[in-house]
Amino acid sequence: MIIPTCPACASDDMVRNEKIREEILTPGLEFTFNEIYYTCNSCHEEGDFTGETDKNYLHAQKSAQTQLVKNILDNMNKAGITMAMLERVFELPSRTLTRWKNGDFSASTLALLRIIATYPWIIRVAENRFDQNHANFILIKVGVEELEKSLHPITYYATSKIDKTPPKQLFVNKPIAAGA
Questions:
Q1: Which one of 39, 94, 100, 135 counts the least CB within 10 Å of its CB?
Q2: Which residue, among 101, 97, 99, has the nearest Cα to 83 in the 3D structure?
Q3: For 101-150, what is each residue's pLDDT tens digit?
Q4: What does the alpha-carbon distance between residue 108 and residue 116 come to, in Å, rounded to a whole number?
Q5: Percentage of the chain with pLDDT > 70?
Q6: What is this structure's pTM?
Q7: Is 10 left (phi over 0), alpha (psi -120 to 50) or beta?
Q8: CB–CB of 138/121 below 8 Å?
Q9: What pLDDT is stored for residue 150 in this prediction?
Q10: Cross-strand bridge partners of residue 19
Q11: Are the beta carbons of 79 and 69 closer than 8 angstroms?
């Protein structure tokens, strides 16, 4: 291990310090990393003069993100949403979700999965090719259901099992007859 020289006074009388730091990955997955910093005994300058902390942070963050992707995909699978279904409705190349689960993903992957995990009804919107009328119907329906749950939690549970499947097309575009 090479101890750096102080960037402020060029002294090599440096002390290496370490501490475990905790961070939270959106949406709530905790991870830890080893923060490394040096203190100059001559001028008391402190800092990570070798970039070790950044490397440690990025490695721990990537591990946490990989675990997050696995958790989200596993939770969807438990809810009956298969990887093949997600690939179909979001028009993703085949085996994309398998690659994601194995750690081959991007920031846009994380964004999409966070959106799906937060708003699972978006899958129903995607199933209907992002049709605006259907999307509006689902958004309103989910909003009303959430309102009902918050106002009447016991009543909502008893009535939530009723099939509330929306029609294929919410608004029918018919020409208006003259004089109507």
A1: 94
A2: 97
A3: 999 999 999 999 999 999 999 999 999 999 999 999 999 999 999 898 88
A4: 12
A5: 84
A6: 0.75
A7: left
A8: yes
A9: 85
A10: 35
A11: no
- What count of residues does the chain have? 180
| CA pair distance 51, 164, nearest whole angstrom | 56
What phi and psi, each to the nearest 5 degrees, are found at residue 103?
100, 0
Residue 32 tokens read as 């830890």
Q: Which residues are registered as beta bridge partners of 40?
A: 14
Cα separation, 35 vs 61, whole angstroms: 13
Among candidate residues 136, 104, 138, the one with its CA nearest the CA of residue 123:
138
Contact between 70 and 101 under an 8 Å Cβ cutoff? The reply is: yes
Which tokens sit at 84? 């093949």
Q: Give me the residue label for tokens 């509330």.
A: 164
Q: pLDDT tens, 74-100?
A: 999 999 999 999 999 999 999 999 999
Determine how β-strand 46-47 pairs with β-strand 29-40.
antiparallel
- Which residue carries 């960037």 as its tokens? 7
Please write down the long-range contacts of 47-50, taking CB distance under 8 Å and 24 or more positions apart. Answer: 47/7, 49/4, 49/6, 49/7, 50/2, 50/4
